[in-house]
Amino acid sequence: MVTANYCRMTPSQNEPPIALSIGIMAWNEEASIVPMLVSLFEQSIFAHLAARNERCEVTCLANGCTDRTVPVAAEIFARMEREHPARRGLTARVADIPTPGRNNAWNRFVHEISARETRFICLMDADIVFNRRDTLQLVLAELERNPRLGGASDWPVKNIAGRARPSWRERLSLATSDMTGTIAGRLNGMLYCLRADIARNLYLPRDVLANDDGFFKAAICTDFFRAPLDPGKVVSVREATHLYEPYLSLRDVLNNQKRQMIGQATVHVIVGYLQTLPESDRAHLAATLRRLEARDPDWLKKLIDAHVARTRYFWRLFPGILAFRWRRLAQMRGARRLTHLPAAVAGFAVTLVACWQAARFLRRGVSNYWPKAARQAILAPPPIG
Asked: What contacts 161, CB < 8 A, 6 or more positions away?
């Protein structure tokens, strides 16, 4: 059950249609939700849509929160009702979802909570902040400009970028981000926007963890597993950015990488299984996944268990474990290959350890792993753009 606190902003009998639905994933984000929402409501997208006689809805998806995330977000929404310059084209609410879980919150928002008429569905994390006013407008414009695209992301920037004297850990972290940026058809899980018809043909089984963006990219770029992979169906818009706090301690880096390894192994398993289904089942993917989960809630867990049992060596948990760091380094140009070599070596070592940990974890018959690192709220800088 979803309890929603609605803050209708300047309601009227002839409200314009909702063109964009934004869902903010929040799990005990009392500290980070304030700067995040402050920077969100400074986005130019609200005035842009209002000028086109369209609206945007914002929903804080507070799932299983035990802190003050819900009242803090509701208070900001109420203030926006009174003060936001584009409040005539804005609807905001808090969806208080008692059951914790990102997948459940995603499914509820996309299939139940978001407006039926919306053309685009945007999901974002609650611990990021925008450093440009036009980030969301640029992402939406890319989708509107190119009808071939199924999804678009902004470009995440670590809040340590630009420091005059970064520590060695910070230098390694920034170099790793540079190499990640070489990925073709990148869909950034911290903030992405999908066409509504595509989003509503997707569904997250409960055991797909940590790599939901990878699953979405695989589905979108293969026309729901019915065509060869085409990375050009998703894009990250470089001019559109947000800030986030990176993991820097060894413990947090390893925990995050372990979570990523579990997620990538899970996506490898589910994609392999879905490709064996009849084309009609793949064409109606959300209905198929709902049916599989209704028939047996542990269907995916059983597939993962069988895969792990067949996998003799931990570095074969999913294809490319030993090579992806070096492929990214090979994409660097000139001297950057040399300057980024330490990050590739360190990343390779972390990947091996994390993959070994992930394999041990999965062999115990568990797939639910989502550690929450202690992180500071990011202060929103004066936005540009």
From this structure: 174
